[in-house]
Amino acid sequence: MRLDSGEVGEGSAASTANPPKERERCYERWRRRPTVNPTSGNSIRRLLQSRGLLSYRSLVRYRATTQGTTSRPAERETRMDDLLPNHIDTVLFDLGGVLVCDPWESLLLAPDRGLADRLDLDRATVERVGHSLWRHYSIRPASESHYWKTLASELDVGLTSEFIAQLEAELLFANPRAEEILNRMSEQGVRIGIISDNTSFWYPKQARLIGLEPYLEPKLSFLSYVFGVHKDLEGRGLFDIAARKTNPGSTLVVDDRPQNVTRALHHHFRALEYSMHRSFNFFESVAQYEDRE
């Protein structure tokens, strides 16, 4: 394992395998990928509707009114206090996949530009190792340099600090509408918090990308590396902690993963599934939200 060996760089064979335009198209497709198609999968639709999550009927009605048009309808300028039920005064955002990209997935697995493809590594192996290390490093404060050293050792590759910096410069990106989302929420007096499985070294970078600090209420910050637990831990996970420190009945959780939405509902939060990688925008998603007791 050599972190300063200079073995890996922009001019490697793996990084020049595809023409630049093809790489751009491939990367753009990956950035816009849907994590879950919100209008397909009867089981997902039934699950969400049975949990009182969000009205797909209204989404279908909205799409039906625009069917056959060649361009997107104009953005709604509805104020946030008209979109959210009156009793919701707090929103807890997930970060990765909602307001900013998931760092480990983007850096390691982005087509062509990610570590796996640049170094011509088996993607399944990189995904397995990457997920395992993310689980380990996201429940304790940790050093980023130690993370990269461990990753290099697990994959048996040499990484340079320059290569890592290049990955981050190209592949860490925010939801283009994150600032608008936070602004409109704040203007309407909504309390903003976060609930995120995250690492001590990637969270600050994500927060800076979207300018989170001015909007965030510190008491509404639920981070796995701070509390030492993930969202999926039964009985004492992040949702259990957040439920004790907030009023779940007046708090909306926004998450891109259906299983976390289900967990939020189980803890009596209001919940909305939203992904920055989908074609419909956040405000349209909120407009379709129907609160059900």
CATH architecture call of the largest domain: 3-Layer(aba) Sandwich
Tell me the CATH superfamily of the largest domain.
HAD superfamily/HAD-like
Tell me the total number of β-strands: 5
What fold name goes in the CATH topology slot of the largest domain? Rossmann fold
Structurally, the number of domains stands at 2
Assess the beta-strand content as a share of residues. Answer: 5-15%
Number of helices: 15
Over all CA atoms, what is the radius of gyration?
20 Å
Could you give the distance between the termini?
A: 55 Å
Q: Assign a percent range to the helix content.
A: 40-55%
Mean pLDDT over the full residue set: 79
What does this protein look like?
The protein is an alpha/beta fold and 293 residues long. The protein has 2 domains: 13-32 and 103-171, no CATH class; 42-62 and 75-101 and 174-287, HAD superfamily/HAD-like (Rossmann fold), CATH 3.40.50. It contains 15 helices and 5 strands. The protein has helices at 20-31, 42-50, 56-65, 80-83, 103-109, 115-118, 123-137, 144-155, 161-171, 178-187, 202-210, 224-227, 238-245, 258-266, 282-287, and strands spanning 90-93, 191-196, 216-223, 251-255, 270-273. A 5-stranded parallel sheet has the order 3-2-1-4-5, with helices on both faces. It is globular and about 55 Å long.
